[in-house]
């Protein structure tokens, strides 16, 4: 999911199937939309006949023939197993129909008790540091919560590249959802990913990112800059999120203000957890905020 303006995300089209390296074929999940851009990128990873499928789209039937074509294009490859970055429906939603189509396959992800029971597949638990291999590819899991508690990114060791899931996107920036999201935790995850020093990034939405390190630094700088702007607005005596959004996002169209309100709320909740701001009122969006 992304907070990029719909025009950014909607205007972007990517081919249904493309080879992004000798061991990475991207297959679009056929689920374009406001929050998914051109759709979820699913990845066929490896070089042999048995390959890993990373993420599954949201389960719409149009995906199945596109995936079949991609597997054929990859030299009659088969799906050895399925690995999922996190439990949001546009990543794991297709797993059940794939197991139905291709027969029982291991579906690995980091467990998230409240959500996993909703999925129609049994989850094989993996966690930070676990490695999944097929011919020509070694994927190492990196636990990167903040967008979602169960989120795993995967280092592709052979390329020094990174499958970033929803933590870094080819367009726009990551949403920190009210359920399971935490901006402070997300920022620590970005630091963790920067420490991996990735070359390429293969995101879950949007095009391949050629310089992963630069993109990660941009993401970190962008969030820090926003935080500074929010603190400055509070110092100037603004206390409602509405007023802060109007000031910080003055250069943006008003249509984006409701999405921006959540972004500012996330900044304030992070600062509150750090003891730097406080509020009157339970509901973050309606509360009055002030420097602590
Ligand atoms: Zn997500």
Can you summarize this structure?
With 292 residues, the chain is of the alpha/beta class.
Question: Which structural traits does this protein have?
Answer:
2 domains, binds zinc ion, 292 residues, Arc Repressor Mutant, subunit A, Metallo-beta-lactamase, Chain A, seven-stranded mixed beta sheet, alpha/beta, 9 helices, 22% strand, single chain
What can you tell me about this protein's structure?
This protein has two domains: 205 residues, Ribonuclease Z/Hydroxyacylglutathione hydrolase-like (Metallo-beta-lactamase, Chain A, 4-Layer Sandwich); 67 residues, Winged helix-like DNA-binding domain superfamily/Winged helix DNA-binding domain (Arc Repressor Mutant, subunit A, Orthogonal Bundle). The protein is built from nine helices and 14 strands. A hairpin with a 4-residue loop joins strand 10 and strand 11. The longest helix is centred in the last third of the chain and has 24 residues. The N terminus is likely disordered. It binds zinc ion. Zinc ion binds next to loops. The site of zinc ion has 6 residues, from loops.
Q: How many separate domains make up the residues?
A: 2
- Examine the coordinates and then state which fold CATH places here, giving the name of the CATH topology of the largest domain: Metallo-beta-lactamase, Chain A
What compounds are bound to the protein? zinc ion
- Major sheet: 7 strands, mixed
Distance between the termini: 32 Å
Radius of gyration: 20 Å
In CATH, what is the class of the largest domain? Alpha Beta
Number of helices: 9
